[in-house]
Amino acid sequence: MSEKEGMLKKERLLTWRQVGPGAQVMTPGTSKKYKSSEWSVRHMNWNPETCIHCLLCWATCPDLCIKVEEGKMAGVDHYYCKGCGICERACPTDPKSLSFEPFDGGKEE
Amino acid sequence: MPTVTEKLKTTKDSNAAMGEAMRQINPDVICAYPITPSTPIMETFAMYLADGEVDTELVAVESEHSAMSACVGAAAAGARVMNATAANGLALMFEILCVASGLRLPLVLGIANRPISSPLNIHGDHYDTYGVREAGWIQLYSENAQETYDNMIQAVRISEHPDVRTPVMVCMDGFQSSHCAENIVIEPDKFVTDFVGTYKPSYTTFLDVDNPTTMGAYDLPNYLFEHKREQHQGLLEAPAVIEAVGKEYGEKTGRPYGFVEEYRLEDAEFAVVAMNATCGTAKDVVDELREEGIKAGLLKVRVYRPFPYEIVAQALKPLKAVACLDRMLPNGAMGGPLFNEVRSALYDFAVKPSVVNYIYGIGGRDLQPKHLRRAFLRLKDIGTSGETGPYVDYLNLRE
User: What's the CATH number where B285 sits?
Assistant: First the structure.
């Protein structure tokens, strides 16, 4: 398992004799490599025009997917965002500065 | 009873015998939440700890789930870890029992067998360890205080062997053994220290800050199958180690151990198969029947997981009829757990004994010689008539 690069991309799958005892992964912090956005069925859009940088989205996101630069909202980490929608609920602006649409809705990343 | 310098003949119940073995093994960590009838194991050990006889880190936790969780953490960090429990406590541990075996962590867990609620009952039967028989642990069963003590010491070696790396349960009957004082030989402290040796984990430990790794990670359909097959290998490798450890222990103490004990089975026609304390009663009944000219025998199963099916089959194959004794109802299966293992082990032979199942001893119900005698006489009838009758019957149940 030491050569394993998480669950990303195509990899050569090991046999049971190769995996090693106890499913121990010989590197730490492997969950960082897991692209949890693969679970998502919808895509998050951020509108910098209406955003007031209150960072309620940052405070409520359960997956640390709100990027912040110099104290200001700076975008969404689409590698980890699962599209749960909590940030949209938390966003106080009208219209919402964070909105979700299905992937097939034509929105770009 | 601190410091045993030479073989000591004394009197102990199985709880005290386990506590004594733990003192001599002197494990690094014990995480305990005692429960009847296993409580005196930890009371005995705590006394030794308070007296400075051991230098174990004893972690008092708030539940059995926490107890086994803390044991897993300590074992993952590379400690030699032991614990004791029973019944509902073992049931509450179930999730973490599977974590321990899945992570291939050596552990030794003493059990005083007891029913699982409901209804609440603190006396003996085998609902608890039968209930966790598929948790991936090795299970050793003990007829008396001596075997309980001997099994605890051997369990350390078996569990920690690099080819095995599988946790071990050492079982004995609640109250019938746990609270029954019997004659026992305690080996010298130095013998036990030498026999179990200094523990060096055969794996890269969890809490090595210089070599951090990931344990217990999320597994997907593309790997869990391979990991479970790899885990299974530990149980497939275990028999060779159990045999070698039992033989070495025998050479050094005069008390050898195998997978089963055959009692007057060599020329027997009828036998019962049983585990734990009832085997003592069964030996007396076998002796009585032999004096009456009935060729009775006993097969005592010491290792239930991994089940020694080849040895059991070879031992029972020549017989006319066999009764498996189970201290648990079949719960919808064809028979009790021991019955199913034994009958399955014999399946491949064209000529084989009839196998029936007796349920007994539920909730501490007595199994007296007269009840076992009844079972043997039925086996004799089966041998004569060839008629098996119902597979499952009950001993000392009010019908």
Answer: 3.40.50.920
Domain A37-105 - what CATH class?
A: alpha beta
Which chain A residues contact residue B226 at CB under 8 A? 13-16, 19
Q: Report yes or no: B215 and A22 within 8 Å, Cβ to Cβ.
A: yes
Å between A26 CA and nearest CA of chain B: 5
Phi/psi at B320 (5° precision): -90, -40
DSSP string, B93-109: HHHHHHHHHHTT---EE
Contact B107, A22 (CB under 8 A): no
Same domain, B15 and B144: yes
* Candidate from A14-18, A102-106, B19-23, B97-101 with smallest mean pLDDT: A102-106
List, in order, residues 6 or more apart from B97 with CB less than 8 Å away: B68, B90, B132, B135, B136, B137, B167
pLDDT digits over A60-79, tens only? Answer: 999 999 999 999 999 999 99
Domain that holds residue B346: 260-394
With 0-12 / 13-18 / 19 or more C-beta atoms within 10 angstroms meaning exposed / middle / buried, residue B17 is: buried
Q: Which stretches of B230-314 are assigned E, i.e. beta strand?
A: 260-263, 270-274, 296-301, 303-305
Q: Which of B14, B12, B362, B16 is nearest to B176 (CA)?
A: B14
**In B255-373, beta strands by DSSP E:** 260-263, 270-274, 296-301, 303-305, 321-326, 354-359
CB-based contact B356:B391 (threshold 8 Å): yes
Domain boundary among B253, B271, B297: B253
Break chain A into its structural domains and give their ranges: 37-105
Check A25 against B217: CB less than 8 A apart: yes
Q: B216 and B316: one domain?
A: no
Report the C-alpha gap between B347 and B345 in whole angstroms: 6
Lowest mean pLDDT among A3-7, A91-95, B197-201: A3-7
**C-alpha span between B333 and A13 (Å, rounded):** 38
In the numeric block, which tokens belong to residue B128? 């608890």
How far B217 CA lies from chain A's nearest CA (Å)? 8
Q: Which of B253, B270, B304 is the last residue of a domain?
A: B253
What's the gap in Å between the CA of B231 and the closest CA on chain A?
A: 7
Test mutation, A24, A30, A38, chain B, max B CBs within 10 A: A24
Statement: the pTM of the whole predicted model exceeds 0.80: yes
* Same domain assignment for residues B59 and B174: yes
Q: Could you tell me which chain B residue has the CA closest to the CA of A12?
A: B222
CB B263 within 8 A of CB B283: yes
